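JOB MANIFEST
job_type = single_chain_structure
chain_count = 1
residues = 315
[input]
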Amino acid sequence: MSKVAFLFPGQGSQKVGMSKDFYDNFACAKQVFEEADDALGFSISKLCFEGPEDQLRLTMNTQPAILTCSVAALAVLRENGLNCTIAGGHSLGEYSALVAAGVLSLADAVRAVRKRGQFMQEAVPVGEGAMAAVMGLKPEQIVEVCQKVEKEGGEAVQAVNFNCPGQVVIAGATAAVNKAVDALKEAGARRAVMLPVSAPFHSTLMKPAADRLKEVLDQIEFHDAAFPVVANVTAEPETKSEEIRALLVRQAASPVKWEMSMHTMIDAGYDTFVEVGPGRVLTGFTRKIDRSKTALNVEDMDSLEKTLAHFKEVR
């Protein structure tokens, strides 16, 4: 019998029209959108389904939008008899995973990530922070080059997303990221490309956002997890509510150890990974991390049917 893990996507997977399929076809998904709209006091549903895209791309909107779509997809999967015994989420996706595990209510989670997005955007003025994806160098080489650039220039730049073999994302002050990109290319990186983001997420420049986020999370009720959620900060399975709360605060200004998180689940015997929510980014990472594992995704009716068909076959 396969061991199933659910993975929840982070920022960057958004697109206008996402999850409309589920809203139209499943009462349980419609209920998720209505609950999120009520909690936020405006229609995140309308933003997901109709845009405009420039509004959907604003961090404080993107984060609750992706979380809502992911939880709607989760409701659809559960209605079809599919569940998991462990979960992980990339950055923002960790909040979706915590809703899935019963640690946070949907209402508290969407309000928290809207604030999280706002705090992250306000921590560094637009244009002063940047991120870049680096391909084809070992993580330790990238860390070393960033440390050297940071030491020489006095401005922050760090490796912040350890996504999969051959792909690490760096973030920091724009000038320092540009210098690091040049230095990494000289060191033999196959590619290093600037990302279209509005802030240097998960770098030490996000510390003010983490401090403000703590105040918000301290007001929210956390429950112990119904099943383990692998934390971005530690790459370890967590179930205790207070530990999870503390790790979420640290997560805003700490690297995302995604590849290590995946190995934690693989080493525990998990062989089937279902990405729940918009996009296929994590499905792609899973295939690069371990091609022998089954990587599926559920974001619309078509992908849902394929995933359900897979489970019917293996049963």
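[summary]
The first helix runs from residue 20 to 25.
The mean pLDDT is 97.
exit_status = 0
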